[in-house]
């Protein structure tokens, strides 16, 4: 490779890194990174919310809403995936029962996250006891959704359940549980900030 080609390759690499750095140093990106520090899976939080469309503004309510949307989308995908596993040929009786239980768990999760999104979306202009009641509903439903996801995975505990079905379900549902955990942390953060006297956004 000629020296000129090497020069242009290095120049392109420098500009690419510079552009990448600029794209992650916006006020919105800094806001997301700072807020995600309050979550258990902070890297996953930043990854999910940085790529969220429409872009998240510097609003804790909008950020929590976006996190719930990510969680709901993944829960719906996981619920559909688990339902298909119940129809595969050769599934063991114990696996089948665990899958059926998981289908119910994930169905409840989807319902709880859907209600949470609707409730949080209606909180743009509420205050006082109305705010406390609504945010308590959201916290309760998201917490229940997380419990249901963990209950689904608990159904496959033990070596007797080892196999492709267990691996496939745990991979999908574990990811759901992680993003739901993050969403709950961001909802709690939004609630605490508001009760401390900050604005709804």
TrEMBL record:
CDD domains (alphabetical):
PMEI-like_3
**Entry keywords, A to Z:** Signal
Q: Which GO terms describe its molecular function?
A: pectinesterase inhibitor activity
The keyword Signal is assigned to this record? yes
This protein's source sits in the domain of life called Eukaryota
Q: Cite the InterPro entries for this sequence.
A: Invertase/methylesterase_inhib (IPR035513), Pectinesterase_inhib_dom (IPR006501), PME_Inhibitor (IPR051955)
- Protein name as annotated: Pectinesterase inhibitor domain-containing protein
Please report the organism this UniProt entry assigns to the protein.
Sesamum alatum
């Amino acid at each position: 490779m000629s020296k000129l080609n090497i020069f242009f390759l290095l120049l392109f690499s420098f500009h690419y890194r510079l552009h990448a750095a600029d794209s992650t140093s916006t006020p919105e990106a800094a806001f997301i990174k700072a807020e995600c520090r309050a979550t258990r899976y902070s890297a996953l939080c930043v990854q999910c919310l940085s790529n969220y469309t429409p872009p998240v503004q510097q609003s804790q309510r909008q950020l929590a809403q976006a996190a719930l949307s990510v969680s709901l989308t993944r829960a719906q995908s996981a619920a559909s995936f688990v339902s298909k596993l119940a129809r595969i040929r050769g599934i063991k009786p114990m696996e089948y029962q665990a899958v059926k239980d998981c289908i119910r768990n994930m169905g409840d999760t989807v319902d709880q996250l859907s209600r949470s999104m609707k409730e949080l979306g209606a909180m743009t202009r509420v205050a006082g006891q109305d705010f406390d009641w609504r945010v308590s509903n959201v916290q309760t439903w998201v917490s229940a959704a997380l419990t249901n996801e963990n209950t689904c995975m608990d159904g496959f505990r033990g070596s007797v359940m080892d196999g492709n079905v267990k691996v496939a379900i745990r991979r999908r549902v574990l990811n759901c549980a992680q993003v739901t955990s993050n969403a709950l942390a961001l909802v709690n953060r939004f609630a605490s900030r508001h009760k401390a006297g900050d604005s709804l956004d």
